[in-house]
Amino acid sequence: MAQTWLVVGLGNPGPDYARTRHNIGQLALAEVERRAGATPKRHGRADALVAESRIIGGPKVVTAFPTSWMNRSGGPVAKLMDWYGVDPEHVIVLHDELDLPLGTVRLKQGGGHGGHNGMRDIIAARGGDVLRVRLGVGRPPGRQDPADFVLKPFAKAEQDEADLLVQLGADAVERIIADGFAEAQQRIHAPS
User: Fold this and answer.
1) Which of these, 155, 138, 152, 111, lies nearest to 12 by C-alpha position?
2) Which residue from 11, 75, 140, 180 puts its CA 20 to 30 A from 87's CA?
3) For 176, how many CA atoms within 13 A lie in the half-sphere containing its CB?
4) Burial of 163 (0-12, 13-18, 19+ CB in 10 A)
5) 167: alpha, beta or left? (left if phi > 0; alpha if psi -120 to 50)
6) How far is it, in rounded angstroms, from Cα 21 to Cα 138?
7) 17 is in an annotated binding site
8) Tens digit of pLDDT for each residue in 17-63?
9) How many CB atoms lie within 10 A of CB 140?
């Protein structure tokens, strides 16, 4: 039987954060769920909203949005990995990335947290071998504090690019599950 996949979209809970740069991972996860016709429900054992589906007729996929604060994502992810019996190489984490220009998607397996507190907590709870869909939100202008920058919504002039980034993030998840990580990475990172 095919291995179950766990796809996690990082973000902060509540309407004040719903459309911020920091929640782009959760926005892309919502698009994955929309495409799969999945409806998330509160998980009884993990602090997360979870849905089960199949993406493109493939293996079982569990999508999850931790309802804890971003910097406490590790506990819910670890509990879900245990509950569903998912190995780290079948966990995909969608998250914002300051070090990539707005609209850029990059895939990564393992490695450090790069200053991302959600990834820091996941690595502390489960190690760093998970697959990552890094969604570029760009650097703050001037001397703006990066923490303030990611907690603000996209500017009106950036909204079309942010909407496209959500689509590209969902595409990346589908490609990883359908084609495998290495092939997905090669296609997504290829120059256009």
Assistant:
1) 152
2) 11
3) 30
4) middle
5) alpha
6) 9
7) yes
8) 999 999 999 999 999 999 999 999 999 889 999 999 987 678 899 99
9) 16
- Compute the average pLDDT of residues 168-189: 95
Class of CATH domain 5-189: alpha beta
Tokens of 129: 């071998």
Least Cα distance to 63 among 98, 36, 99 occurs for: 36
Alpha-carbon distance 154 to 162, whole Å?
7
Task: Indicate the pTM of the whole model.
Answer: 0.95
Q: Indicate the length of the chain as a whole number.
A: 192
CA-based nearest residue to 91, from 77, 102, 101: 77
Q: pLDDT tens digit string along 106-149?
A: 999 988 888 898 999 999 998 778 999 999 999 998 899 998 99
Minimum mean pLDDT range among 10-14, 43-47, 88-92: 43-47
Strand order of the β-sheet with 91-97 is 41-42, 48-54, 60-66, 5-9, 91-97, 131-136, 105-109
Residue 166 amino acid letter: V
Residues 6+ apart with CB under 8 A from 94: 7, 8, 9, 10, 24, 25, 26, 28, 29, 132, 133, 135, 169, 173
Is 1 a residue whose pLDDT tops 80? no
DSSP state of 49: E
84 is in an annotated binding site: no
117 is in an annotated binding site: yes
Model pLDDT, residue 192: 63
